[in-house]
Design brief:
Layout: H1 6-19, E1 26-33, E2 37-43, E3 51-52, H2 55-64, E4 68-69, E5 76-77, E6 81-84, E7 91-93, E8 99-101, E9 105-108
Antiparallel strand pairs: 1-2, 3-7, 4-5, 5-6, 6-9, 7-8
């Protein structure tokens, strides 16, 4: 819940699903503690036999999607969206060389 609010998190999920459908989040509902907190329950598909992608792989993948790398490492823009925190701990590559973004920060410009 680094997004600050449930509404901001749900918007981030919608943007993620638009840009990275291979790792789209599914929303199941809400859970919480009696009268104290409410948390959304979301999942992503498991990427089997994957490991962190290199930054060069990530940069190449984002360029193929039409994004330009900015001066900040792991940050990209295509004029409509800005995506950041695309670093090896948040992007996986499987044994076939396919890239999967599993966690990214995204905003609409």
């Amino acid at each position: 819940m680094n997004s600050g609010s449930i509404a901001a998190l749900l918007k981030k999920i919608l943007l993620h699903n638009l840009l990275f459908p291979d790792t789209a989040y599914s929303f199941y509902g809400f859970a919480g503690f009696d009268g104290r907190t409410v948390q959304p329950v979301i999942t992503q598909p498991r990427i089997a036999d994957a490991h962190p992608a290199t930054q060069i792989m990530i940069d190449t993948y984002m360029a193929a999607l039409g994004f330009e790398k900015t001066t900040q490492e792991g940050r990209f823009s295509n004029g409509a969206y800005e995506v950041w925190d695309l670093v090896p701990r948040n992007v996986l590559v499987d044994e076939d060389g396919d890239i999967f973004v599993v966690d990214a920060e995204i905003k609409q410009i």
